[in-house]
Amino acid sequence: MPIFVATIASVSAHSFLSLLASTSDASSTSSSSSSFILPLKSPSKRSSIFPSRVSLSGKPDPIAGVLDTSPESVRRARRSADWKAAREYLDSGFIYEGRIEGSNAGGLLVRFYSLVGFLPFPQLSPSHSCKEPYKSIQDIAKSLIGSLISVKVIQADEKNRKLIFSEKEAARSKFSGQVAVGDVYEGKVGSVEDYGAFVHLRLSDGLYHLTGLVHVSEVSWDLVQDVRDILSEGDEVTVKVINVNKNKSRITLSIRQLEEDPLLETLDKVIPQESSAEPDSFGPKGDSEIIPLPGLETIIEELLQEEGIVDVRVNRQGFEKRVVSQDLQLWLSNAPPVEKKFTLLARAGRQVQEIQLTTSLDQEGIKRALQRVLERVP
To answer: Going by CATH, does the domain composed of 179-258 fall within 3.30.1330.60?
Structure first.
């Protein structure tokens, strides 16, 4: 369900809380996914005599009942009220718009009324680094000082004086409604892990507000041993959204589903038969007349050691018009088995060989057996 964002323009600190309180009853009947951006008016412009403030829950602000009006008492009461407001932002999930007042080695300092909270660099939206990819995060942070930023409170611990913000969470609330399963986006690889790659999605405004995961199994139709062999930080890729979990704020992406599944190929598809085809495009069917590609004979011997595999033999071969790769490539066709016989294809240089594999295993079992064999073969 889309997230609707309402911006309440330019109100003072105490008046916006009063305004929010007046809307709290109405909001209780609306969708829980609605988010509000509540802009900050600089504390320096607020009156030094604090009028009564109404909290997000609609209850009177503690300052209203303070009898001791000394500056120190008012300051303590104000801070207590602001910590209470921070906890209510945390519980409600409302978006807060605060001014960036500074930075340090780990993140940004963001004003929250009389308090100053912390926005760690990992909680920044990827839009900043994607917009200026050649700048360090420290330089980006310095350029943001003085600007307003939309954030969510993700920790409000008054006892330990920890007020932590996240711009990523605010961006998810505002933009995740734009993303649906089946959508295709241009993206930029943010980081690469053993289990996959995180890709920042470029939305309709040209900025990268959201990040999704391309699992290692969705990077390529080929067997991927190390994602870093295929993807690197900063790479531009095209991805397809295959799952959106709004409860866990997760977007799952795929690169391979935008490409034709090579596992559907047969020798006839790799080397299509045309009237102009070379006479030797397809070799004889007798395996005694075909010499396995370099390295393939060892793989065949190892496959025969796998439980459930009865026979492996080179069935046919053909020659492509150009060299695709000098390295040996091996893949399992998704062509339906005939009498428990599956088809493997091997390619090296111009040669393509079709291998017939007789087995009691299903496709997934064969894939696992192939993976074990390829791990054993140097």
So the answer is: no
